[in-house]
Protein backbone atom coordinates (compact mmCIF):
# COMPACT_ATOMS: atom_id res chain seq x y z
CA UNK A 1 0.00 0.00 0.00
CA UNK A 2 1.21 3.48 -0.85
CA UNK A 3 1.93 5.23 2.47
CA UNK A 4 0.27 8.37 1.16
CA UNK A 5 -2.92 6.59 0.24
CA UNK A 6 -5.98 8.00 1.96
CA UNK A 7 -7.62 6.08 4.76
CA UNK A 8 -11.33 6.43 5.27
CA UNK A 9 -12.48 6.40 8.88
CA UNK A 10 -16.18 6.30 9.64
CA UNK A 11 -17.48 7.64 12.94
CA UNK A 12 -20.80 6.11 13.91
CA UNK A 13 -23.17 7.96 16.21
CA UNK A 14 -24.50 5.10 18.32
CA UNK A 15 -27.62 6.73 19.72
CA UNK A 16 -30.72 7.82 17.83
CA UNK A 17 -32.51 8.98 20.98
CA UNK A 18 -34.14 12.41 20.97
CA UNK A 19 -31.91 14.88 22.82
CA UNK A 20 -29.03 12.40 22.57
CA UNK A 21 -25.59 13.14 23.94
CA UNK A 22 -23.60 10.89 21.56
CA UNK A 23 -23.66 13.36 18.66
CA UNK A 24 -21.54 15.79 20.69
CA UNK A 25 -18.43 13.65 21.23
CA UNK A 26 -18.95 12.21 17.73
CA UNK A 27 -18.83 15.68 16.18
CA UNK A 28 -15.75 16.62 18.17
CA UNK A 29 -13.94 13.43 17.11
CA UNK A 30 -15.00 14.04 13.51
CA UNK A 31 -13.64 17.60 13.51
CA UNK A 32 -10.34 16.50 15.08
CA UNK A 33 -9.89 13.60 12.68
CA UNK A 34 -10.53 15.85 9.68
CA UNK A 35 -7.40 17.82 10.61
CA UNK A 36 -5.17 14.81 9.93
CA UNK A 37 -3.34 14.32 6.64
CA UNK A 38 -4.41 11.53 4.33
CA UNK A 39 -7.50 10.82 6.37
CA UNK A 40 -10.99 11.04 5.02
CA UNK A 41 -13.37 11.22 7.97
CA UNK A 42 -17.07 10.54 7.60
CA UNK A 43 -19.74 11.01 10.25
CA UNK A 44 -22.45 8.37 10.07
CA UNK A 45 -25.71 9.08 11.84
CA UNK A 46 -27.83 5.97 12.43
CA UNK A 47 -30.90 8.24 12.26
CA UNK A 48 -30.19 8.39 8.51
CA UNK A 49 -30.22 4.57 8.35
CA UNK A 50 -33.64 3.43 9.57
CA UNK A 51 -32.89 -0.27 9.24
CA UNK A 52 -35.63 -2.55 10.58
CA UNK A 53 -34.69 -5.03 13.30
CA UNK A 54 -32.62 -7.50 11.33
CA UNK A 55 -35.07 -9.69 9.42
CA UNK A 56 -33.42 -10.68 6.13
CA UNK A 57 -34.26 -14.29 5.18
CA UNK A 58 -30.64 -15.33 4.50
CA UNK A 59 -28.13 -14.59 7.23
CA UNK A 60 -25.63 -11.87 6.40
CA UNK A 61 -22.62 -14.17 6.58
CA UNK A 62 -24.17 -16.39 3.90
CA UNK A 63 -26.03 -13.94 1.66
CA UNK A 64 -23.17 -13.35 -0.80
CA UNK A 65 -24.00 -9.65 -0.70
CA UNK A 66 -27.61 -10.17 -1.76
CA UNK A 67 -30.11 -8.54 0.55
CA UNK A 68 -33.89 -8.62 0.26
CA UNK A 69 -33.94 -5.16 1.83
CA UNK A 70 -32.30 -2.51 -0.41
CA UNK A 71 -31.45 -0.39 2.63
CA UNK A 72 -29.52 -3.33 4.07
CA UNK A 73 -27.49 -3.51 0.88
CA UNK A 74 -26.88 0.26 0.90
CA UNK A 75 -25.77 0.06 4.53
CA UNK A 76 -23.35 -2.76 3.74
CA UNK A 77 -21.96 -0.74 0.83
CA UNK A 78 -21.53 2.32 3.04
CA UNK A 79 -19.65 0.28 5.67
CA UNK A 80 -17.60 -1.29 2.90
CA UNK A 81 -16.14 2.16 2.14
CA UNK A 82 -14.47 2.35 5.58
CA UNK A 83 -10.91 1.36 6.43
CA UNK A 84 -11.65 1.75 10.14
CA UNK A 85 -14.43 2.78 12.47
CA UNK A 86 -15.05 4.79 15.60
CA UNK A 87 -18.23 3.83 17.43
CA UNK A 88 -19.59 6.41 19.84
CA UNK A 89 -21.92 4.46 22.07
CA UNK A 90 -24.11 5.20 25.07
CA UNK A 91 -24.42 2.72 27.92
CA UNK A 92 -27.99 1.54 28.36
CA UNK A 93 -28.55 -0.89 31.24
CA UNK A 94 -24.86 -1.81 31.27
CA UNK A 95 -24.87 -2.61 27.56
CA UNK A 96 -24.41 -0.65 24.35
CA UNK A 97 -27.38 0.58 22.36
CA UNK A 98 -29.76 -1.75 20.53
CA UNK A 99 -29.67 0.46 17.44
CA UNK A 100 -25.92 -0.03 17.21
CA UNK A 101 -26.22 -3.82 17.61
CA UNK A 102 -28.78 -3.88 14.82
CA UNK A 103 -26.50 -1.82 12.57
CA UNK A 104 -23.66 -4.28 13.31
CA UNK A 105 -25.82 -7.32 12.55
CA UNK A 106 -26.85 -6.08 9.09
CA UNK A 107 -23.29 -6.35 7.76
CA UNK A 108 -20.62 -9.03 7.82
CA UNK A 109 -17.91 -9.14 5.12
CA UNK A 110 -17.61 -5.35 4.98
CA UNK A 111 -16.60 -5.20 8.67
CA UNK A 112 -13.98 -7.96 8.33
CA UNK A 113 -10.28 -7.24 8.96
CA UNK A 114 -10.86 -3.63 9.95
CA UNK A 115 -10.04 -1.85 13.21
CA UNK A 116 -12.61 -0.29 15.50
CA UNK A 117 -12.15 2.16 18.36
CA UNK A 118 -14.78 3.06 20.93
CA UNK A 119 -15.95 6.22 22.66
CA UNK A 120 -18.40 6.08 25.56
CA UNK A 121 -19.62 7.83 28.69
CA UNK A 122 -21.78 7.21 31.74
CA UNK A 123 -21.49 6.29 35.42
CA UNK A 124 -18.61 3.90 34.74
CA UNK A 125 -17.33 5.98 31.82
CA UNK A 126 -19.11 3.61 29.41
CA UNK A 127 -16.64 0.82 30.25
CA UNK A 128 -19.30 -1.88 30.39
CA UNK A 129 -20.78 -0.97 27.01
CA UNK A 130 -17.33 -0.94 25.41
CA UNK A 131 -16.36 -4.31 26.89
CA UNK A 132 -19.52 -5.85 25.43
CA UNK A 133 -18.80 -4.31 22.04
CA UNK A 134 -15.28 -5.77 22.05
CA UNK A 135 -16.74 -9.27 22.42
CA UNK A 136 -19.21 -8.74 19.60
CA UNK A 137 -16.93 -7.17 17.00
CA UNK A 138 -14.48 -10.07 17.19
CA UNK A 139 -17.22 -12.28 15.74
CA UNK A 140 -17.34 -9.83 12.80
CA UNK A 141 -13.59 -10.38 12.38
CA UNK A 142 -12.91 -6.81 13.37
CA UNK A 143 -9.91 -5.76 15.43
CA UNK A 144 -10.98 -3.85 18.57
CA UNK A 145 -8.50 -1.24 19.74
CA UNK A 146 -6.81 -1.29 23.15
CA UNK A 147 -7.24 2.48 23.57
CA UNK A 148 -10.73 3.84 23.94
CA UNK A 149 -12.10 7.22 24.95
CA UNK A 150 -14.00 7.12 28.23
CA UNK A 151 -15.50 10.55 28.77
CA UNK A 152 -15.11 11.64 32.42
CA UNK A 153 -18.19 12.84 34.28
CA UNK A 154 -17.01 16.48 34.43
CA UNK A 155 -16.48 16.55 30.66
CA UNK A 156 -19.83 14.82 30.16
CA UNK A 157 -21.63 17.45 32.26
CA UNK A 158 -19.87 20.33 30.46
CA UNK A 159 -20.63 18.82 27.05
CA UNK A 160 -24.31 18.48 27.88
CA UNK A 161 -24.45 22.28 27.97
CA UNK A 162 -22.68 22.60 24.62
CA UNK A 163 -24.34 23.19 21.27
CA UNK A 164 -22.81 22.03 17.96
CA UNK A 165 -20.14 22.80 16.87
CA UNK A 166 -18.41 21.74 20.09
CA UNK A 167 -15.91 24.07 21.73
CA UNK A 168 -12.76 21.91 21.71
CA UNK A 169 -11.68 23.37 25.08
CA UNK A 170 -14.27 21.13 26.72
CA UNK A 171 -12.06 18.15 25.83
CA UNK A 172 -8.91 19.64 27.39
CA UNK A 173 -8.96 17.19 30.35
CA UNK A 174 -8.61 14.39 27.79
CA UNK A 175 -5.90 16.25 25.87
CA UNK A 176 -3.80 17.66 28.68
CA UNK A 177 -4.75 15.66 31.77
CA UNK A 178 -2.61 13.37 33.91
CA UNK A 179 -2.91 10.58 31.35
CA UNK A 180 -1.47 12.77 28.61
CA UNK A 181 -3.22 13.19 25.28
CA UNK A 182 -5.78 10.40 25.39
CA UNK A 183 -7.43 11.49 22.13
CA UNK A 184 -4.19 11.51 20.16
CA UNK A 185 -3.17 8.10 21.53
CA UNK A 186 -6.54 6.76 20.44
CA UNK A 187 -6.11 8.17 16.92
CA UNK A 188 -2.53 6.93 16.54
CA UNK A 189 -3.44 3.35 17.41
CA UNK A 190 -6.53 3.29 15.20
CA UNK A 191 -4.78 4.82 12.21
CA UNK A 192 -1.78 2.49 12.56
CA UNK A 193 -4.08 -0.53 12.49
CA UNK A 194 -6.17 0.92 9.67
CA UNK A 195 -3.01 1.19 7.58
CA UNK A 196 -1.75 -2.28 8.52
CA UNK A 197 -5.05 -3.99 7.93
CA UNK A 198 -5.66 -2.20 4.66
CA UNK A 199 -2.36 -3.63 3.42
CA UNK A 200 -3.34 -7.07 4.79
CA UNK A 201 -6.70 -7.00 2.99
C1 LIG B 1 -32.56 3.16 28.83
C2 LIG B 1 -31.40 3.81 29.52
C3 LIG B 1 -30.56 3.06 30.30
C4 LIG B 1 -29.43 3.65 30.89
N1 LIG B 1 -28.56 2.85 31.57
C5 LIG B 1 -27.37 3.37 31.96
C6 LIG B 1 -26.35 2.51 32.47
O1 LIG B 1 -26.51 1.32 32.61
N2 LIG B 1 -25.17 3.06 32.80
C7 LIG B 1 -24.92 4.39 32.67
O2 LIG B 1 -23.83 4.83 32.96
N3 LIG B 1 -25.89 5.24 32.19
C8 LIG B 1 -27.09 4.75 31.83
N4 LIG B 1 -28.05 5.57 31.30
C9 LIG B 1 -27.79 7.02 31.25
C10 LIG B 1 -27.04 7.36 29.97
O3 LIG B 1 -25.66 7.20 30.17
C11 LIG B 1 -27.33 8.78 29.51
O4 LIG B 1 -28.72 8.96 29.39
C12 LIG B 1 -26.66 9.07 28.19
O5 LIG B 1 -26.84 10.43 27.87
C13 LIG B 1 -27.25 8.20 27.08
O6 LIG B 1 -26.60 8.42 25.85
P1 LIG B 1 -27.32 9.18 24.62
O7 LIG B 1 -27.84 10.47 25.19
O8 LIG B 1 -26.24 9.37 23.63
O9 LIG B 1 -28.42 8.28 24.14
C14 LIG B 1 -29.18 5.03 30.73
C15 LIG B 1 -30.05 5.79 29.95
C16 LIG B 1 -31.14 5.21 29.33
C17 LIG B 1 -32.03 6.04 28.45
- Percentage of residues in strands: 15-25%
Structural class call reads: alpha/beta
Task: Spell out which ligands are present.
Answer: flavin mononucleotide
Mean pLDDT: 97
Please give the CATH architecture.
Answer: 3-Layer(aba) Sandwich
Calculate the terminal CA-CA distance, rounded to whole Å.
Answer: 10 Å
CATH superfamily: Flavodoxin domain
What shape does the CA trace take? globular
What does this structure look like?
This protein has helices spanning 23-34, 70-80, 98-105, 127-139, 153-160, 172-176, 182-200; strands at residues 7-13, 39-45, 84-89, 115-121, 143-144, 149-151. The protein is of the alpha/beta class. The protein has one domain (7-200): Rossmann fold, CATH 3.40.50.360. Strands 1, 2, 3, 4, 5 and 6 form a six-stranded parallel beta sheet that branches. α3 (98-105) links the parallel β3 (84-89) and β4 (115-121). The chain is globular and about 50 Å long. The termini are close together. Flavin mononucleotide binds next to loops.
How are the SSEs placed, and which strands pair?
Elements: E1 7-13, H1 23-34, E2 39-45, H2 70-80, E3 84-89, H3 98-105, E4 115-121, H4 127-139, E5 143-144, E6 149-151, H5 153-160, H6 172-176, H7 182-200
Parallel strand pairs: 1-2, 1-3, 3-4, 4-5, 4-6
The protein binds flavin mononucleotide.
Residues 15, 17, 20-22, 90-94, 122-124 line the site of flavin mononucleotide.
Amino acid sequence: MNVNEQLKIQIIIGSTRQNRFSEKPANYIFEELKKKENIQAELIDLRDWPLPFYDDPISVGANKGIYSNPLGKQWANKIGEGDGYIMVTPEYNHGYSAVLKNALDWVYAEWNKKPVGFVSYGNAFGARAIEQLRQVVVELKMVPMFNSIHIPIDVYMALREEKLPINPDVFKPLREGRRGDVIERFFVELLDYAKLLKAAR
